[in-house]
């Protein structure tokens, strides 16, 4: 197969949702279709439970296993599908944001009873920023759901994207009859089925105008469907693939993941319309996937949970060319040539050494602590991929050494955990103390636990009152210098030496924004 053909047959995407909407269940059903797993529950057991008082050991255990499910590859009808897993727990949202930089499209799962929830809204903001094409799967139709038109309106309003239903449900809950596929013009009838295998329990009829429909769903629901479909065709523009690819319109499907209903339709449509690997932006130019020379970047680093092996796995997304085992590549940040003797690929829950990988694929690289998120590999060109954001943290604590004998271990541990993107480190200008900023409370526990178990270091947290950290930049050097002088006690530097303003309160932040008009207060930064 030529490089072009390999690229065209790849679909790299992530499924995102608010916890409990059905992401794990849908992932699993897709894998069943691909024959990548054979029993339900294989993915499920890897997920981090979402209870408020999470069992921390459990999280650690799961995190270890989740290396295997970080990327799930499978083949379906000659299409190579790579699903990138995103953590369910919202405290790991930053991990999810970064994973979104490595995908070419996204499927959003929404609970039909609950509608659009907070986490979905936040993740959609990231997709919008990057113009990522999204498809929506409205799940749990076997339960009483909101009215489908209300749901479509809600998605449009809350996620700020135009929608185009490509399937339409007939009722929901106990009277749920099935879904009419507006894309293929056929009807799938729902019979609750707990077999949860790839054989969807559906019957198909070709024409909703025929009496056949009445026989299957009853006259009342048949009439309802005919008028709903008429309304859909009247209200929504015909589906236009280009607007989907531009991230302007989201095709919407309805179904019930746990019953494996509506999943095949979603997958069939997905492989037809979802984009193959797209060009990637660097600081200097756009990289086309079909370029002959290999380029790629690291979007995720995963520590090994085995205390006897400190090694980590760095996940590299291939952006162009063909990646080859044992070939030298330039690690742009260090300027060193590196080669990998055992790069791994991920097929369902299995990990295996590969010889080649193509654009859109994710390769696992063995890392002894040299890599950082955002690192670029090329065949010599000094490129740096952009768009891997670091979000302004929301929770802050001073980190102190609790064991004076282990100072070095602590410094190394903090350094490596920050490289993995677990949290962010700031050094206060006021007192030189180290501040850790995170997006979720759980991260403090994770850091403390990992410092102790992986690095043999002890830390102690001390409270600090900060409302928000933001990066500051300005073309007006005079104003910038003045600001830094006046706000000296609230200034810090991040790991890369960039200036950060630590605002005590929301009021202090808006006052600063008001008084220093030439300064940009940034809430995301790129690595
Ligand atoms: P998440 O990854 O988005 O957090 O959601 P997950 O798939 O774990 O699904 C959350 C819960 O919703 C699970 O129940 C799952 O079985 C259920 N679910 C998923 N799809 C459907 C559906 O189409 N209909 C209905 N009725 N339920 C669905 P759980 O009780 O948390 O877990 P489990 O004990 O069933 O495994």
Write the layout of secondary structure elements.
Blueprint: H1 3-8, E1 10-17, H2 23-33, H3 56-69, E2 71-76, E3 79-84, H4 93-100, E4 105-111, H5 118-130, E5 134-139, H6 148-158, E6 162-165, E7 167-170, E8 178-181, E9 186-189, E10 204-205, H7 211-217, H8 219-235, H9 241-245, E11 249-254, H10 263-273, E12 280-281, E13 286-287, E14 295-303, E15 312-320, E16 323-324, E17 329-331, E18 336-338, E19 344-347, E20 350-353, E21 356-357, E22 362-367, E23 376-378, E24 389-391, E25 395-401, H11 407-419, E26 424-428, E27 434-438, H12 442-455, E28 459-463, E29 468-473, H13 477-486, E30 491-494, E31 499-503, H14 506-515, E32 520-522, E33 524-526
Parallel strand pairs: 1-3, 1-4, 4-5, 5-11, 6-11
Antiparallel strand pairs: 2-3, 7-8, 8-9, 9-10, 12-13, 14-15, 14-23, 15-22, 16-21, 17-18, 17-23, 19-20, 24-33, 25-27, 25-28, 26-27, 26-30, 29-31, 29-32, 30-31
The chain binds guanosine-5',3'-tetraphosphate.
């Amino acid at each position: 197969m030529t490089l072009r053909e390999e690229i065209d047959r790849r679909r790299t995407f992530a499924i995102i949702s608010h916890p409990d909407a059905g992401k794990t269940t849908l992932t699993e059903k897709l894998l069943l279709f691909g024959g990548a797993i054979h029993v339900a529950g294989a993915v499920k057991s890897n997920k981090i439970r979402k209870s408020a008082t999470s069992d921390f050991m459990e999280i650690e255990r799961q995190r270890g296993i989740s290396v295997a499910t970080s990327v799930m590859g499978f083949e379906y009808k000659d299409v190579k599908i790579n699903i990138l897993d995103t953590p369910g727990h919202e405290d790991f949202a930053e991990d999810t944001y970064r994973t979104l930089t490595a995908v070419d499209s996204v499927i959003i799962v929404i609970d039909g009873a609950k509608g659009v929830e907070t986490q979905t809204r936040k993740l959609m903001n990231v997709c919008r920023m990057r113009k990522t094409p999204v498809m929506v799967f409205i799940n749990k139709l076997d339960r009483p759901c909101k009215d489908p038109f209300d749901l479509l309106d809600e998605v449009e309003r809350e996620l700020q994207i135009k929608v185009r239903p490509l399937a339409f449900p007939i009722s929901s809950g106990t009277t749920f009859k099935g879904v009419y596929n507006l894309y293929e013009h056929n009807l799938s009838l729902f019979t609750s089925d707990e077999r949860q295998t790839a054989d969807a329990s559906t019957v198909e009829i070709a024409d909703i105008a025929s009496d056949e429909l009445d026989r299957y769903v009853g006259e009342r629901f048949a009439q309802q469907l005919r008028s709903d479909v008429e309304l859909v065709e009247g209200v929504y523009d015909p589906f236009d693939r280009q607007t989907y690819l531009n991230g302007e319109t989201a095709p919407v499907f309805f179904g019930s993941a746990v019953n494996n209903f509506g999943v095949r339709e979603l997958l069939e449509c997905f492989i037809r319309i979802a984009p193959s690997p797209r060009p990637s932006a660097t600081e200097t130019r756009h990289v086309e996937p079909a370029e002959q020379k290999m380029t790629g970047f690291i979007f995720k680093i995963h520590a090994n949970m085995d205390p006897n092996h400190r090694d980590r796995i760095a996940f590299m997304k291939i952006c162009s060319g063909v990646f080859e085992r044992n070939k030298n590549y330039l690690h742009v940040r260090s300027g060193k040539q590196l080669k990998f003797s055992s790069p791994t690929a991920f097929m369902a829950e299995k990990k295996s050494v590969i010889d080649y990988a193509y654009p859109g694929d994710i390769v696992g690289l063995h890392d002894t602590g040299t890599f950082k998120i955002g690192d670029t590999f090329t065949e010599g060109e000094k490129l740096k991929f952009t768009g891997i954001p670091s979000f302004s943290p929301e929770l802050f604590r001073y980190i102190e050494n609790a064991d004076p004998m282990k100072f070095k271990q602590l410094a190394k541990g903090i350094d490596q955990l920050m490289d993995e993107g677990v949290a962010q480190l700031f050094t206060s200008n006021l007192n030189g103390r180290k501040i850790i900023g995170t997006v979720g409370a759980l991260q403090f526990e994770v850091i403390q636990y990992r410092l102790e178990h992986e690095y043999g270091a002890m830390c102690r947290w001390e409270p600090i009152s900060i409302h928000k950290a933001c990066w500051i930049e300005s073309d007006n050097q005079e104003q910038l210098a003045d600001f830094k002088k006046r706000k000296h006690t609230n200034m810090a530097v991040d790991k890369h030496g960039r200036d950060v303003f630590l605002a005590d309160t929301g009021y202090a932040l808006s006052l600063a924004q008001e008084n220093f008009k030439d300064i940009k207060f940034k809430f995301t930064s790129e690595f």
